[in-house]
Model the fold of this input.
Amino acid sequence: MSTRTFRITVRGAFDGLTAEQHAELVARAPEHDMLRAEFTAEGHLTYDIAARPFFTFRFLESGEKEEDILDAGARAELAAEAWLEERGYGFKNIKSQSQDLSLAPLGKRGRRAAAAAL
Done:
């Protein structure tokens, strides 16, 4: 059986931050800039707290069956919540979206590479 790659996006909003927490997030904002967004196994956090209180974690997981994507999404939500709780950041409205890359349509480069491999 082949391994499937899943991209999970967990979104939510910071809630009830203290002035110190807000200042800390503003100071660390360059590390979490949306232009540096990537999907990683440990999860990559992006936000622009100066503009709005929303955040996004991006996780990369794998599984063997199509149904594994449900467990991967649940693990990603728990990991995002744990990261926030460890730092004492309040949050709300956690939601996730998952994508099985084995089911994603190929773009022009992917089709060209697939044709060249034949």
User: Anything to note?
Assistant: The chain has a mean pLDDT of 91.
